[in-house]
Amino acid sequence: MNMKKIFAVILAAGLLLTAVPGVAEDTLNADAATLGLTAADSQKLDVCYTLAMNAINAEDYDTAKEYLNICFVYCNPQANPTMYADLLMKRACIDVIEQKYDMALLQLDAALRIQPDMPDVYLVRTQVYSAQGALSDAIENLEKYISLTDDATLYETVALLQEANGNAIAAQEAYDKFAAAAGEDNKDVLFNAALYRMQNGMYADAAEAFQAFAEDEVYGAGALFNIGACKMNLGDLTGAIESFTACAEKGGTFEGLYYNRGLCYLLSENWEKAAEDFTKSIETENIGDDVIYNLGICKMQQEDYEAALANFNEVVTRAEADGAELNDAVFFFRGVTNAALGNLQEALADLTICVDHGYELAQSYYQRAQVYAALGDTENQQKDLENFIKY
After folding, report:
1. Disulfide-capable partner of 331 in 61, 110, 350, 375 (CB 3.0 to 4.6 Å)?
2. What's the pTM?
3. Which CATH architecture has domain 329-391?
């Protein structure tokens, strides 16, 4: 729902006036009497209101304000509360355009005192509070508008406001109401409803909802990717791999497709398949250094130590160039890889970093003890083995 569009409609919408040029004089006099006006004053109100509306439609708001001010002189709030409240709302809308939000709220509050259940006032208040960043107040007013009009389509905007206000569950609940109003044939709405569930950690429900789109020509690839992400979070690595694979077969090109499938293979200890996906991710996706690190782990587990070392070195080089802080796991596994290649001094340096930083102390001491043993330093080997037992 476009708040600006609806706001413009409210501003431009005019009331049906009681005094219309060309009507019989006795009818005009009767209408004027109903408003507590003389026939001449009723005509002035009619003309000034029409001129104000013309100026509003022409976006000449200074002229519109002049005619609205004249309307206030001739419009009696007791005799014609509907028109008086409408005038206050029109004036408030112009204040909003001029970013005079406090003045707009005063006008809108006055309108509600006259017409407490005037729906459009609550919609304009929603606009004001949104502009001021008072999202809770904006939500309250929009929900009041919905309750007065039964316009459930505006729950989409409630969802957006709740999301912006950090209320993810409330956003989902509002969007569910919007989806129910939209009907079962609105695929875009139903797909987004499933996205809300995934974002809120309701992975089983979200996967079930996305499954309805798995064969869809438009939504199928996206649904399968999201099912894979849900199953991955649920620990169903086999199911996640199947969904990511089906997504790729449908031509899906989503960022992280190969990286996530690679992670599933890695966690399943299928090092070869994981390495293939991480390599594909490096070639086609913009994931960052994590994928290079994970490829290094796979290569190390396959005992391709030269390739693994190249990956770990690249991660370190990139981090140093960017001034980024490195995870100590990089030094640990590079140390183990260097040790496997016989690069003992390099291995010692990496594992010492891990010990100094307190990373996986038991294993860091154990691996460094093996390096000391290879170097023939039995004294330090003894110390590290004792620390291994300690930790």
Report:
1. 350
2. 0.74
3. Alpha Horseshoe (1.25)
